Amino acid sequence: MSTPVDFIAALTRIVGPQACLTEAADTVGYTTDYRKLYRGDALAVVLPASTEEVSQVMALCHAHAVRVVPQGGNTSLMGGAVPEPNSGAIVLNLRRMNRVLAVDTVNDTLTLQAGVTLSGARAAADEAKRLFPLRIGSEGSCQIGGNLATNAGGTAVLRYGNMRDLVLGIEAVLPDGRIYASLRGLRKDNTGYDLKQLFIGSEGTLGIITAAVLKLYPQPRAVSAAFVAVSDPRAAVQLLGLAKQLAGPQVTAFELVSADAMALVCDYLGGARPPLAGQPAWMVLMEFSSTGEQAALDAQLTQVLEAGMEQGWVHDAALAASLSDVQAFWRLREEISDAQTRTGGSIKCDVSVPLSDIPAFIDAASRQVQALAPGSRMVIYGHMGDGNVHFNPLRPADTPARDYLEHHYSAVSHAVDQLVHHLHGSISAEHGIGVAKRDDLRLYKSEVELALMWQVKRALDPQGLLNPGKMLPVV
Ligand code: MLT
Ligand code: ZN
């Protein structure tokens, strides 16, 4: 088997002819990212149906030194799930591995294949009267394997943690085709290195995650939410402190939304009505949830808001009167991302700093952006409760997207990252590195960190077969 034709024939024998795509018309959806910013090429796209098939594909690629780009729902914002141009790689998409394998309501675990979508996982938990708490806007498309490979975050991290915190066991195929089988549902296991953690957040550079055991939680019986007008980000931080003090773990989400972000999303949703009158400069979407009574939870939220008003941090609030109000509030928040994609010309900075530095960061970064790219719309929003801001300056309405990005992308993102670094923050809080931030990593990781990352990579993938060109900067 020395020619590409032989190689493709061997791939086809493993996964079957319907699951080995080579025509450009069939592969383009897998080689282009969902924002259409990154386009690459692949020798083939394979869609294995089992861990055994993934293992055989990987062993074949290992024997032929063919590189492999693992792919879930292809919703990466960082170009992490598509091949690079002329990559000579294959794409291995896991969408056919979409079975729920086991639900254990005594152990509170859900075992599933990596290609189950996040909404599929949430539905399986719901059917068992449990909660799987990861919540991100792309839940209908993104897959559990990708959520794990990127350590996804989202809007309920404040209460439940990132994907890394929500998993007990994984199964992954190694670059030589061996299977790391650790589908254990244990909350305690101190038997040496916690190897699964290596694969979580590795962006497919160390192994292909094929299955996982996830943690389940009690389903909340009560959910209360409010959109709140706050004076500024400082008041928002203070309100969060108060909420945690008064409502403890019931504080489930705490999302900041700027006036420009709200205006953009209302426009995108065909002129949706903003939840608060008077176009407040800063808003917070707060959600409380509990297994107790709805009335008690509503009272707790009201108490927090009244205390916030007394302090002068809260100016106005719209409380959700029903579950459909709660959903409408979340729609406004979650569609901001697509509103930016549709508008084009957005400089995405997914950053985190210690919560105490959020106000100073927003202040200083906004001033720098206005100096570098005057007239930018300040689309600032995100998971403030986690110290994670999506600080995404957007082109002025009358500037074409391409001009704005050409002139400002590099200077603005560099200035924001420098500021974040100065505040001991992270230049990628939850979106990962992919190709978009790969080279920047060199500036913000220490020599020791970069050397260790490469040592791990070379130990697990000495031939550099998995997700080439992603995450690890050339040093
Ligand atoms: C979100 O929280 O909506 C996304 O992570 C942000 C984004 O798409 O930039
Ligand atoms: Zn986010």
Write the layout of secondary structure elements.
Layout: H1 4-15, E1 20-21, H2 24-31, E2 44-46, H3 51-64, E3 68-71, E4 90-93, E5 100-104, E6 109-113, H4 118-127, E7 130-131, H5 144-149, H6 157-160, E8 167-173, E9 179-182, H7 196-199, E10 208-215, E11 217-218, E12 222-230, H8 233-247, E13 251-258, H9 259-268, E14 282-290, H10 294-311, E15 314-319, H11 323-334, H12 336-343, E16 350-352, H13 358-372, E17 377-382, E18 388-394, H14 401-422, H15 441-444, H16 447-460
Helix pairs in contact: 1-3, 8-10, 9-12, 13-14
Bound molecules: D-malate and zinc ion.
D-malate is lined by residues 77, 137, 336-337, 348, 382, 390.
Poorly predicted ranges: none
Cα gyration radius (Å) = 23 Å
Main beta sheet? 7 strands, antiparallel
Helical percent range? Answer: 25-40%
Number of helices: 16
Distance between the termini: 35 Å
Mean pLDDT: 97
Strand arrangement across the biggest beta sheet: 15-12-14-13-17-18-16
* Helix-strand category: alpha+beta
β-sheet strand percentage = 15-25%
How many beta-strand segments?
18
Shape: globular
* Bound ligand species: D-malate, zinc ion
